[in-house]
Amino acid sequence: MTLDPLLIEVLACPIDKGPLLWFEDEEILYNPRLKRSYVVRDGIPVMLIDESSEVGDSEHDRLIAKAKSENVPETGSNARGGKGPTDASPS
Asked: Is residue 86 part of a domain?
């Protein structure tokens, strides 16, 4: 299910207030800095810290590779000058 573009622009991680990667086909928002994912249920992002999931190293690597290869959108990217998924993860 798709998220409203305006919602994508304003969503941020509730922990570090940074941008998230939106994997529409998997219905998750992902914070690569903290390796935490947030599920989207019926088009509604569940942004509760207690409901988020920790992501292991192999899953993190898969998501980052997918974000780069599929040009996955990042929340708030227009407001920050278009930073994309390649800028989301520290080296």
From this structure: no
User: Tokens 């940074």 belong to which residue?
Assistant: 18
Does 84 map to a domain? no
Q: Which domain holds residue 49?
A: 5-79
Total domains present in the chain: 1
Tell me the helices (H) and strands (E) count for the chain, helix number first. 2, 5
> Which residue matches tokens 């040009």?
71
How far apart CA 1 and CA 20 sit, in angstroms, is 17
Determine if the pTM surpasses 0.85: no
| Number of other residues whose CB lies within 10 A of the CB of residue 88 | 22
- Taking only the tens of pLDDT, the chain with its 91 residues reads 688 889 999 999 999 999 999 999 999 999 999 999 999 999 999 999 999 999 999 999 999 999 999 999 999 865 444 444 444 444 3
* Residue 53 counted as domain residue: yes
